[in-house]
Amino acid sequence: MKEDKENPEEQSKTHERNYEERLISLFIAEYNILRKEIDLYHTQQDSIVNFVILIFTAMFGVLGASIAISTSTASKTAESLAFIFLLFPFIYTLLSFFYLDRTLRIIRIADYIHNNLRKKVYDTCGEYVWQWEIVCV
Prior knowledge:
82% helix
C-alpha cells in the first residue's frame, strides 16, 4: 500500500513556510498602505502651502486696495479694511497647525515602519529590509 501523505516533519516545514510567506505578505501589504498614507499627507501639506500662498497674495491685494482707497477721499473705507489684517495671523497660525499635524503624522508612520515593522520582517525572514538610510559606497 502506497502512502500519499507526506511525513509529519515535511508537513510541519511546509506549514511553517506557508505561514512565513503569508506573514511577510501581510507586512508588505501593511507597508504599502502606510506608504500611501504618507503620500496622502504629503499631498495635504502641498495643499496647505498653496493656501498659504493664496492668502499671502490676497493680503497684498487687500493692502494695495487699502492704499489706493486711503489716497482717495474715502479714507473711511480704508479704515474699515484695516481689520482684515488682524485676521491674517490667525489664519496663518491655523494653517501652520494643520501643516504641523500632517508632519507629525508622517513622522509617526515613518517611525513605526523603521522601528517596528522592519524588525518584524527581519525576525520573520532573517533579512534586513527597508535599509534606505544605509548608504552603500
